[in-house]
Amino acid sequence: MPPADGLAEQVRTASCDHGIKRWRLYLTPEQMESVAYGLWLHRMTGSAAEANRFAREYGVVHSPARASGEEPPATNGLPSAAGAAARGGTGVGGRG
User: Fold this and answer.
1) Terminal CA-to-CA distance of the chain, rounded, Å?
2) Sign of dihedral through CA atoms 24, 28, 34, 36?
3) Within 13 Å of residue 30, how many CA atoms lie on the same side as its CB?
4) Do residues 8 and 81 make contact, with C-beta atoms less than 8 angstroms apart?
5) Once rounded to an integer, what is the mean pLDDT over residues 76-95?
6) pLDDT tens digits for 25-53?
7) Over the Cα atoms of the chain, what is R_g?
8) What is the pLDDT of residue 18?
9) Inter-axis angle of helices 49-58 and 29-44, to 10 degrees?
10) 11-38 b/e with 16+ CB inside 10 Å = b?
11) pLDDT at 31
12) What 3-state DSSP class applies to 23?
């Protein structure tokens, strides 16, 4: 799956808020789902830290079953990327 339209540009234009030591990155629901997918892929290579933090801080989890139309597995109460998108999540921050 390719990155969502405009995601690369949003990442390039992200800004760092030095006062709170966090990056400000504004994403559409589709872009948030794309980020969750990328973190899921990274987790499959052996590193789950980023995906776990994204899920914990923003409540966005990629579910391969949901993406393919199958019944999703349990996500320990965390919403999928589609669920977070439905809630209208737009701002994503990360420690810089």
Assistant:
1) 27
2) positive
3) 9
4) no
5) 46
6) 999 999 999 999 988 888 888 888 888 88
7) 13
8) 94
9) 150
10) eeeeeeeeeeeeeebebbbebbbbbbbb
11) 95
12) strand
